[in-house]
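Reply to thread "Modeling small-molecule complexes from scratch"

Following up on the discussion above, here's a worked example others can learn from. I took a protein sequence and the SMILES for NPW and predicted the complex. Inputs first:
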Amino acid sequence: MRQAWRVADVRAAERTLLERLPDGTLMQRAAAGLARRCALLLEDAGGVYGARVLLLVGSGDNGGDTLFAGAALARRGAQVRALLMRPDRVHLAGLRALRAAGGFTVRDLPDHADLVLDGIVGIGASGGLRREAAVVVERLSHLRGRDGRRAVVVAVDVPSGVAVDTGDVPGDAVTADVTVTFGCLKPAHVVGPAAVRCGQVELVDIGLGPVLRADPAISVPDAADVAEWWPHAGPASDKYTRGVVGIATGSATYPGAALLGVSGALAGPTGMIRYAGSAHEEVVRAHPSVVTVPRVADAGRVQAWVCGSGLGTDGEARTTLRSVLATSLPVVLDADALTLLVDGKHADDLRRNGPLVITPHDGEFKRLAGEAPGTDRVGAALKLASWMNAVVLLKGDRTIVATPGGEVWANPTGTSALATAGSGDVLAGLLGSLLAGGLAPERAAVAAAYAHGLAGRRAAADGPVAAPDIAAALRYTVRDLTGR
Ligand SMILES: NC(=O)C1=CN([C@@H]2O[C@H](COP(=O)(O)OP(=O)(O)OC[C@H]3O[C@@H](n4cnc5c(N)ncnc54)[C@H](OP(=O)(O)O)[C@@H]3O)[C@@H](O)[C@H]2O)[C@@H](O)CC1
Ligand SMILES: Nc1ncnc2c1ncn2[C@@H]1O[C@H](COP(=O)(O)OP(=O)(O)O)[C@@H](O)[C@H]1O
């Protein structure tokens, strides 16, 4: 698991360290790690000696890190040039170090560079990138290096132009191949469009960890977390003790939603699936192991319900929604079930003891919350989670899971291959199975999103992806993830 901290918390930890360390120590640690990573990139691209390195240097400490790293590369024989955004306000010690190592400043972007270090602005950024910086950033993609290859762009701490605490990209911003960050990850590395701008993110340890007192803003699961959480059958298990998931999705009009939900659940850990709804004949025909009934009221015992997609919004759909909410079981609400909540007719049904997970995409989020998630997706998801007292899985490129208690997870496995009709139905089915298998709601949501993303990637490797391909790939994804 990786974790990201907000700027204010990073600053607080930095202050604690600064009191204990001689002046400049942190910057030297940061610059040394940055230079090491840049040297490796240059070695891969033909060597450090003689390589052309361009430093984009802002007026703060981010520029200072960049100048010291540039000096280290110059000492190894690289031709290092620095373009200063504000020559009147530059980190003087950094500039002296660069000059002493043989580097020099330039007034405009050169024609050629093998490597660009973006040190325009780091965690001290406020607002969108300023015009003079934006003009330089716009021209970066034209820079060519050895053999006419595109220059490799390394962002120092964060790509300049991103909003560090929200992951928003309000305007022009650097698109990096690699981002070398210091001390800890920040939200922009893991959520929102900023995360995409970071490229590969590498963390340099500068000793901040032990003094980071605040809770992390966002956690990012890895395969080991998901494998550890995934429920497993044991020698004493039977189909009931493994959990039974109830699927109340789809309808005679939209049987596909039911089939996809069931196929997602089939890849989960439960021993049995009960389907309740008007697509029951289609479901049992396609999946003979599923026990089907026409209505939730007729279903036997389950340990969690999935309700919503393809259900429609008529009276029958309302009855289905009421029936699942009347239980004290964990419930996943998706798609039409979320639409049914908007007019407030289910306010009483929502006052229940059982855990609730809602899985909106942006449109559903807007209907529920009254406004789109906007530029601060984490903040928006947290607000809705608290308001609805539900775990919110906000779908997107970096799907976010937020809890009413203030925990946030960002899924790292998403792929645009998942942006296909019915993909969310597969996700909801898998999530329901994990809940019925006994996982806590936030873990079930995080694990489902993680495996769903990997399955999308796996399916995409074989060609264009439709939702049934994601469901089919889930089986192998789960095997690889959990080793079973
Ligand atoms: N935290 C840590 O533990 C460590 C932090 N370290 C490093 O320090 C960095 C933070 O340095 P920082 O505080 O000096 O701020 P920084 O990011 O350089 O930006 C401030 C300057 O940018 C400017 N500027 C602002 N907004 C702008 C915009 N939109 N567009 C354009 N320009 C803009 C603004 O200019 P001004 O408004 O003053 O004209 C101001 O002068 C951090 O990211 C990391 O690299 C490491 O050395 C060691 C450990
Ligand atoms: N551009 C994207 N990149 C990565 N994942 C995406 C993207 N667009 C959508 N997704 C994912 O695809 C799924 C789509 O779900 P949803 O919108 O509910 O589809 P449907 O209602 O058709 O089943 C979600 O898991 C979402 O996170």
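What I'd highlight from this example: The mean pLDDT is 96. The domain at 2-219 is CATH 3.40.50.10260 (Rossmann fold). Questions welcome below.
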